[in-house]
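Can't attach files on this board, so I'm pasting raw text. These are the components:
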Amino acid sequence: MNQQQLAEAAALEFQIEGKFSRAFPYGSGHINDTYCAVFLRAEVPRRFILQRINTGIFRNPAALMENIQRVTSHVGAQLAGQPDSARRVLSLIPTRDGRASHQDEEGNHWRAYRFIEDARTCDTVESTHQAFQAARAFGQFQNMLADFPLPRLHDTIPDFHHTPKRFAAFEQALATNPAGRATDAKPEIEFAFAHQSVARVLLNANLPERVTHNDTKFNNVLLDDQTDEGLCVIDLDTVMPGLVLYDFGDMVRTATSPAAEDERDLRQVTMRLPIFEALVRGYLAATASFLTPAEKQFLAFSGKLITFEIGLRFLTDYLCGDTYFKTHRPEHNLDRCRTQFQLVRSIEEQEDRMTAFVQSCG
Ligand code: ADP
Ligand code: GN1
Ligand code: MG
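---
Top answer:
Structure tokens for the assembled complex are below.
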């Protein structure tokens, strides 16, 4: 069976009423395969999200699904009774035999979610309002998980944001040069070495471990179609213990630049200060009650760090021959690396003003 047929067959395995109509690829993620599945109930089409988990990357899908079940139930309980609560948290649909995910005959793991209607994700930010809303939604998500009960969530990818280990992986790729591409990335390799010292900063800062999202790309929050309200945080595969600053930093990485993550015209890649300020305001509106002064102190820095870290990961994957992130052209990972490093430069140019703004927020 091809991918499409596998997705269609998997859709039938979930507790969804009605007649299956079709399934088609959906979204722009780099890791899992996402489909929109349409079922007809009394001839009325209803949409569902169907995802094939990338088990090359998420090695223990059962542990991953246990995390997602616990996190969505915890958040769901916190939201109970609030208006529109069903659109504010992801809701897993069990398989016909009551499991969280379905394993098909080829060993693929599939899961399904209720579709949250009248909302959308965007790859780039168009207004300070959107930035404020997204940051507040991710902040609220952290806030709702602040009292998450034991046992500790599984580490779905160990050392996911351990930047020094990411650096070591880069050095390893450079040393072995498995795809013979190192000579094509000389300036980027030099940039990486010149910034090596930022990698350790947060790990040395003695910050508290909390339950965090760890993949807070702007396109991982659904915005309400009518109001742009940050409605629902999605893409929960990496929710696990971590540092809140990696979450804030990834918002800076993905929201402040007007350019796409793989933009080739680097003149378009820039850190927009008003968007950064809106992110800080939105994030603090939801998290001021629990953030420590040390966490607040690093908000501006965190954007630089995570942008560097993700750039380093794209560079590493380029050197390794594109084995991790989905790519759509031969130099795709190198292009992505270049945009990240350009954004790091733009952040460095404005870091003093970013830090001053955070301090002015009290
Ligand atoms: P990926 O790992 O591929 O980024 P996501 O979980 O972010 O996967 O989902 C991909 C896209 O599917 C999202 O950008 C969003 O547009 C859409 N999506 C995901 N879950 C839902 C949902 N429950 N309701 C509506 N749309 C969703
Ligand atoms: C991947 O799955 P997706 O596209 O939301 C990656 C993130 C990177 C991001 C870069 C599990 O996220 O860590 O920041 O690409 N997810 C994983 O766009 O590695
Ligand atoms: Mg996503």
